[in-house]
Amino acid sequence: MIKNYDVIIVGGGPAGSSAARKLVRGGKKVLILDKYSFPRLKLCAGWITPETVRDLELDFTSYPGGIKKYNKLHFYIKGIHIPLPTTQYSIRRYELDDYLLRNSGADFELHKVKEIVNHKGKFVIDDLYESEYLIGAGGTNCPVYHTFFKEINPRAYDDEITTIEEEFPYDWKDPECRLWFMENKLTGYSWYVPKENGFLNVGIGGTLNGMKKNGMTIRDHWKLFTEKLNKKGLVTDYDFHARGYSYFLRKRVNTVRAGNALIVGDAVGLATLDMGEGIGPSVKSGLLAAESILNGTPYSVDSIPKYSIPGIIFPFLRKK
Length: 320
Ligand SMILES: Cc1cc2nc3c(=O)[nH]c(=O)nc-3n(C[C@H](O)[C@H](O)[C@H](O)COP(=O)(O)OP(=O)(O)OC[C@H]3O[C@@H](n4cnc5c(N)ncnc54)[C@H](O)[C@@H]3O)c2cc1C
Description:
23% of the residues lie in helices and 31% in strands. It has 7 helices and 16 strands. It has helices at residues 14-25, 50-55, 93-103, 143-149, 208-213, 218-231, 279-295, and strands at residues 3-10, 30-34, 47-48, 68-77, 80-90, 107-110, 116-119, 122-125, 129-136, 160-169, 177-181, 188-195, 199-207, 243-248, 257-258, 261-263. Strands 1, 2, 6, 7, 8, 9, 15 and 16 form an 8-stranded mixed sheet that branches. Strands 3-5-4-11-12-13-10-14 form an 8-stranded mixed sheet. Helix 1 packs parallel to helix 3 (93-103) and helix 1 (14-25) runs parallel beside helix 7 (279-295). The longest helix has 17 residues, at 279-295. The site of flavin-adenine dinucleotide has 39 residues, from helix 1, strand 2, strand 10, strand 13 and strand 14.
């Protein structure tokens, strides 16, 4: 028998679980569908701002995962070291997403969404699930985006960020978060992000277009970066098995709602133009989408900031 819900959310990342938490509190019957069981691997450096901590209502005393606090971010721009005093945090997505999903209060089913049809005013998913509202929180390849928004909200392929990274247990000695910008002509940056409980995340992100222009691939940049980590003694004697993923910066956003279908997070493409920060904007969009469903108000992402650190040099932003 088909299962009926007020709202179905495709994708259990921060965008989906934030929307779910608010909708459940508002009295809605909510189902989250995800193609993976949680906890699951999500490629992400796991840097979050104090604002995101607030939006997520993360209570450090009861959060079961590790949260590392930084009092500075160390920027390196063309070899110049700029220590920026600021309070920032890192988490492991493996832990955070599982925690948020469990705390959302929504029902969860392990299911890879393939077909979505609109039948007599209801969304029907793979002939198994049905709802009045549908939220697409499936990230870059979200099926809700592909079914209802691809034509009306085309991706800004100029602003596709390609990344490669690895998170692994490592007995790091340097506890600082370090970010190297525009090295080897990369339109982007590489990072060294130590985490609590003996984990480390290192990676690189940059615009695909920029790399093509310079005749380099992300793997070429990765090779140079890992050699540098080794030379600096930051990561030594480690056999990397890095993986890649791509997502979109915040550029063209025509519409985020089509009837009762709404898209949030990476399904929209909301990562900040300077730092490629996507968790905070995803959470904010999830909360705004939920508010729109609960109060019948318009849903817009216009209030979500486009920059993480206004006033600092922007590696991803370039003149068109
Ligand atoms: C290497 C890398 C490093 C990053 N570092 C940072 C950082 O340090 N800080 C930051 O703020 N942002 C960072 N980002 C961006 C951030 O990870 C994303 O913006 C954020 O995860 C988006 O959240 P989301 O909930 O929209 O999507 P996701 O977290 O991608 O969740 C989408 C979910 O949808 C599910 N799904 C997809 N398709 C289907 C389907 N057909 N059926 C069912 N389920 C489906 C997936 O399994 C997944 O669980 C980084 C991104 C990358 C790639």
